[in-house]
Amino acid sequence: MVESNNPTEGESIVFAGHDQHKDAQVDVDALSGGSRVDDQLLDFVRQQEAGAHDLGHTFWTSLSQEIGGIRQLLEDTAEVETPPELSPDPSDLHHQSSFLFHGNDFDLEHPSDLHCSHLIRFYFSNVHPLCMILHKPTARLYLESSRSSPSQATTESARRGLDALRHAVYFAAVTSMSRAGCMQYLGAAKDSLVMRYMRSCEAALSRADFLNSVEIATLQALVIYVTAIRSHRSNRSGWSLIGLVVRLAHSLNLHRDGDGRAFSPFDAEMRRRLWWHIIVLDIRAAEDRATEPMIYDGSFNTSMPHNLNDSDFDPSSGSLPKAKIGTTDMTFSLICMDVSNTFLVVNYVPPRKQRILSIPQQEDIIKGCTGRIDSIYLAGSVASDPKTWVVSTIGQLLILRLWLVVQYPLQSVRLNKQYFPSGLGLRTATLYLALRESLETSEYSTGHRWFFQTYVPWHALAVALVALCKQTKGPLVEQAWSVIDQGFEKWGGRMADSQGGMLWRPIKSLMRKARAARETHLESLNRPPQLSVSPAPLTDGVDIGLPRLSLEPHGSNTLDPFLIGNFESIHPTIFPCAEVDALNTPGNDPLFTEFADNSTNWDENWNEFLLDAGTFSVDPPFEI
């Protein structure tokens, strides 16, 4: 949430960039001192954004050079008579946005003061750590204020944006609560509460005219809504709204902030948080349907947020403190942002006639991301902290996801040689699926389970099934089948467009082929076909480069320690080698001795799945 710098009495200190939307006024007399011209230009740039977001501050900088310098630009601007602003009728503000959300059809749902306090508490406990786009101290100050108190907004547009933000918080809070929690604290069934607050949030967004609003608070409300709606809808509505969010962010120039020097330290940091969370949402939406993200590498220059707690800065901060080493309020979000940025790099397919990154280059990039997670975001963490375990487990899952993208790209590919040893893909996919289930069932992730359940591991599942069509024996195979049999139907119910969607049909086809291969193998051993067998621990063969993450700090563990590693290990993580060397040669690793068949054309099998899934490119397969 972004705030203005110098609020006068009675004005809000809750939003970021709120002062940007006032009428642009430049005091040229105050700029007569040449030493202050550069600083004043930055203020001028910020004020101009209210009417020219699409141009950005780089336009004003270049224009000033063309007409004879900064001072000339400011003087000429002051001489131009500013036409009076035409204020639309407040009753018509939402008309242009009502075709998406029907603001006239539903009254805003205002909870009682007691219920409001519960919703705010659950939001900052269950949602805020995963969606760090608000500044908790100032956001709470506004949210906990009485609705009957004088408005803190200076314009009707700002007030409606604030109102949309309030209702987005309510909706996300209900989304994050358990069914028992909804009944205990709010006195109603979760399904009815979700529907009530979802419609109220949509009505508030419509009344804020979110399609045309230049209020940061309105975009924050829409982003929170989209983050929450993923838990309730598997159709394309959430996926489509991400594209709208990206466009609206572009209209506010969130992607062109650079190092943020055009804004106050507080405003710049909150704009960074909002933009980078949008990147994470865009990539997740693309993964849901195996499509390309709208945001691509090189299309933005906004720096990543700092590793700071909300309490480390406020709207009055003249500068931000130095970014911290170790866990902070931003740790989870920064891990997601860093991995998302890495994904944009390693998964980017350039225009034809340009070569993609080689596998060694992709490996180096992933290793760098893993190193940052270890040495910056999780430095000094202890295994006994449940919150740290949840964050670190998510980090490991995201790194495994990157390795899967390298080993089994989402585009058609023709390998020049067998690069990875047979079995490594199955090991990576099995580890991902097992760790994913461990996270969802852990008591430590209860408050965040609503968020984790939106991660459907279809890519890892498809990789595992492609491998299991050929690999029918060995401890790794048994481990893979155990995890798949436990989660297959559940994952299908959560897939994009449900089990009738584009991706699930070819996955079901792979499942039939893999089961047939398994049954044939079991029959050859005179064993009756079975759903799964007890998981066998994996030996410590090829190590997949991961952060030094821990098992659950308490209780018994169902996963082999070699799968996950140990936070307290004094040895650094070993990454997969760029070449298939002695360590990674299937014949030298007992994990792979059962299926060391280098003649298997793995990329052809994977390309067949991509063709069935509709993600196969019409261009010729690229070579590595």
Can you describe what's shown?
This protein is mainly alpha-helical. It has 3 domains: 18-79, no CATH class; 97-318, no CATH class; 411-623, no CATH class. 48% of the residues lie in helices and 1% in strands. It has 21 helices and 2 strands. A two-stranded parallel sheet has the order 1-2. α2 crosses α3. The longest helix has 24 residues, at 265-288. The protein is globular. Mean pLDDT is 74; it is low at 1-15, 17-61, 533-545, 548-602 and 616-624. Its main location: nucleus. GO terms for molecular function: DNA binding; zinc ion binding. Keywords: Metal-binding, Nucleus.
- Integer average pLDDT: 74
Strand order of the largest sheet: 1-2
Main pleated sheet = 2 strands, parallel
Strand content: under 5%
Distance between the termini: 44 Å
Number of helical segments with 4 or more residues: 21
Class by alpha and beta content? mainly alpha
Rg to the nearest angstrom?
A: 26 Å
Number of domains: 3
Instruction: Assign a percent range to the helix content.
Output: 40-55%
Give the beta-strand count: 2
Order of helix and strand elements from N to C terminus: HHHHHHHHHHHHHHEHHHHHHHE
Low-confidence stretches: 1-15, 17-61, 533-545, 548-602, 616-624
Name the shape in a single word: globular
